[in-house]
Design goal:
The chain is built from 14 helices and 13 strands. It is of the alpha/beta class. Helix 5 crosses helix 7. It folds into three domains: 226 residues, 3-Layer(aba) Sandwich (Rossmann fold), CATH 3.40.50; 102 residues, no CATH class; 91 residues, no CATH class. The chain has an eight-stranded mixed β-sheet, sandwiched between helices. The protein has a five-stranded antiparallel β-sheet with strand order 2-1-4-6-5. The two termini are 47 Å apart. It is 30% helix and 19% strand. Strand 8, helix 10 and strand 9 form a beta-alpha-beta unit. Bound molecules: iron/sulfur cluster (SF4). The site of iron/sulfur cluster (SF4) has 14 residues, from loops. It catalyses: Ni(2+)(out) + ATP + H2O = Ni(2+)(in) + ADP + phosphate + H(+).
Length: 429
């Protein structure tokens, strides 16, 4: 049996997602662990290209070729679902937990909408411009009703859309896909997300909605199946600040009202501070620090977390200048990645020990606080700091030059045997 995880609804262990492109293998997600408790908001934060959206898409099975989940477990806790598939999938079910990677893609698809739903960052491109907003939401409702009534479905929620309705719909298909009941529910959902005059607005097309209204409509569509887990991928990025605040308030209210769990993907630390109970900071395909909001904001260990926080304006502080993180996010191409700490060439505290890839260790703070950084185990020692320019192309040692995967162990060993001359006396702070 799995260990007692009474409050957890979702647990991701060692998730790896690769993209097999013409340029080579891209390690977009590289061994991510996440645990989310029912009713909580878990934030994944990081720069563009850090792998946060791919992580979210992997969890809800939206990775398409040339992408592929190559390793790890995605465990979802739902007693009803587990009981429904146990006989056909004995190896994937453990009590109320189901390893979603151990079931067929059709079973995973059956969870979309009713158990997992997603809000995308650009509502304009997510709605069909030729169909009214109300009809598109009603279609989402209808899909859930029909799936629930299907005897082969793992869902058994709908009491209004019966097996008889399904049979009649199959034998005598009407011109319109949606039923009056689904349209009525769509109007209720528009009202729930704060759209004024929902009956009239349901008949309008996406171009007649403002950006904020359309984002609300997308949230309504995502709620059509009353999901357990709502994944919100940069839900406010395309909106101005006032509307952002309204949408975040709305998500907060809906979570309280419906008891949903939210996985929030964002690059915005202000959004994280406002919404999240727990946070995972992502860098180069890895969660480099995770913990409660307090752990990450007030007691962080990883210099990247410190750098992210330092690059946010402090409106109450003195007139300190913002501290940008120098350098760029590294390439995630497998043959260009190093086995050292991926943040080392941008880190003001890089030491010799950082030339080996750090494992994750517990950090001070709550039980949930952990970081992938040598500073969890040792104090920064200026005498062992890497010199300025260590990672510059001219000074880059053989082990750090772009090498193929098979050559990496050799070059790393060689690097350790022949460290660069100036490994002490750096001016790192
Ligand atoms: S392991 Fe070293 S280089 Fe990496 S973040 Fe920690 S201190 Fe910086």
């Amino acid at each position: 049996m799995l260990a007692d995880m009474t409050e957890e609804i979702l647990r991701v262990e060692g998730l790896k997602t690769r993209f097999f492109t013409d340029e080579g293998q891209v390690n977009a997600v590289d061994g991510v662990d996440i645990a989310i408790e029912r009713g909580d908001t878990y934030g994944i934060v990081g720069e563009s290209g850090s792998g946060k959206s791919v992580t979210a898409r992997s969890i809800i099975d939206l990775i398409e070729s040339p992408g592929e989940i190559t390793d790890g477990r995605i465990l979802y806790r739902n007693q009803e679902f587990a009981d429904g598939i146990r006989d056909d999938n004995p190896d994937a079910v453990d009590g109320a937990w189901v390893d979603l990677r151990g079931v067929s893609s059709s079973v995973r698809r059956s969870l979309r909408g009713s158990n997992f739903s997603m809000i995308f960052q650009d509502p304009q491109s997510s709605f069909n411009p030729t169909i009214t907003v109300g009809e598109q939401i009603a279609e989402a409702v209808e899909v859930q009703r029909r799936a629930s009534a299907n005897p082969r479905s793992t869902r058994a929620r709908s009491k209004e859309y019966t097996l008889t309705s399904l049979a009649l719909g199959t034998i005598l298909p009407s011109k319109r896909y949606v039923t009056p009941a689904s349209r009525e529910r769509a109007i209720e959902l528009l009202e729930l997300v704060g759209i004024p005059d929902p009956v009239e607005r349901a008949d309008e097309y996406p171009h007649e909605y403002s950006g904020g209204m359309l984002q609300r409509a997308m949230i309504a569509q995502a709620l059509a199946g009353e999901p357990d887990v709502l994944v919100a991928d940069e839900p406010t990025t395309a909106l101005d600040v006032t509307i952002q605040a309204q949408i975040l308030d709305l998500l907060d209210d809906l979570q309280e009202e419906l008891g949903m769990t939210i996985l929030l993907i964002t690059h915005n630390l202000g959004v994280v501070a406002r919404m999240c109970d727990r946070v995972g900071v992502m860098y180069a395909g890895e969660i480099v620090e995770r913990g409660t909001l307090e752990d990450v904001f007030d007691d962080h260990v990883h210099p990247y977390t410190r750098g992210l926080l330092g690059s946010v304006p402090d409106l109450e502080g003195a007139s300190d200048r913002l501290q940008p993180i120098p350098g760029n996010v590294p390439s995630l191409l497998d043959h260009e990645m190093n086995r050292r700490c991926h943040f080392a060439d941008r880190c003001p505290k890089a030491m010799e020990a950082c030339l080996e890839h750090p494992s994750e260790h517990s950090a001070r703070g709550s039980d949930h606080h952990a970081a992938r950084c040598v500073l969890t185990r040792t104090e920064y020692d200026e005498a062992r700091a890497l010199a300025d320019g260590y990672f510059d192309e001219a000074d880059r040692p053989a082990g750090d030059k772009h090498v193929g995967p098979d050559e990496r162990d050799e070059t790393l060993d060689e690097d350790r045997q022949h460290p660069p001359a100036e490994t002490t006396g750096g001016e790192h702070q």
